[in-house]
């Protein structure tokens, strides 16, 4: 095995490790935004439900 083959193998391993980390970060960010979106939708539904309940009891 010559020196360039060794550096090629090391480069491939480093590229795989960097890609693995980037994909993990990307999925973490996407999961955070999805959770935030779900929380926002649930909060809006609860807000309008509470507003309807308390507005109906005042009349």
TrEMBL record:
Keywords: Membrane, Transmembrane, Transmembrane helix. It comes from the Bacteria. This is Flagellar biosynthesis protein FlhA. It comes from Microbacterium memoriense. The lineage of its organism: Bacteria, Bacillati, Actinomycetota, Actinomycetes, Micrococcales. The chain crosses the membrane at residues 6-27, 32-54. The keyword Transmembrane applies.
